[in-house]
Amino acid sequence: MEEITVLIVEDDFRVAEINRQYVEQAAGYIVQKIVYSGREALDYLEDSEYLPDIVLLDVYIPDVDGMDLMWKIRQAYHEIDIMIVSAEKEAQSISAAFRGGVFDYIVKPVDHERFSKSLDNYREYRNLSKAKKEWEQSDIDGLTRNLQIQGGLDSSGASLPKGIDAITLDKMIELFSEMGIEAVTANEVSTALGISRSTARRYLEYLVSLKKMETKLIYGTVGRPQRKYVLS
User: Fold this and answer.
1) 65 CB neighbour count, 10 Å cutoff
2) Could you tell me whether strands 213-218 and 226-231 are parallel, antiparallel, or unpaired per DSSP bridges?
3) Strand, helix or coil for residue 107
4) What's the CA gap between 34 and 41, in Å, rounded?
5) Which member of 68, 156, 200, 218 lies 3.0 to 4.6 Å from 186 by CB, making a disulfide possible if both were Cys?
């Protein structure tokens, strides 16, 4: 497995250590360096023989505006990816970060599972980039789908509704994409994912509302017809 190197830019020593532990718990990742200021980050990148693959950047840094630092890194080191890990929640800052091409934006306090999912997606992105000279539309769609779901967004970029969480939704989509299932009932999804039938139906109907799935009534020889869900 390719080793993915990480530079952590975080002025809080305790948070930096937590982030380091999270990163190194993820398969294939290693923290190359932790720096605690913008100046230290730029000096390290300038002097480094081997640039990190990705920078985990806090927006609140004492000696420099974090967004300015992001743009400086982006302009000087095109090959480095950036992930924001910050308590900054202002829409303007988040929008600016994505316009600057960050891979992801994680709001503090960091949820370990959310953080790990983002690292998994970044590893998938890098593996795909190295494995293929050309990407099919399905490759792009798969990656963007993961990014939307990990951030608690539906396909239109809206927040997920109450009763729908990103992790369960992701598992349900993977059930279809990885197993190649053509049509299932809520009972079958319930058994496969270890969730209640009512929960399975709620998620399936949500995917129907996004036009990701369709429903069909399957008539047997006896009894009531079964309501089955198929990918659109």
Assistant:
1) 13
2) antiparallel
3) strand
4) 9
5) 200
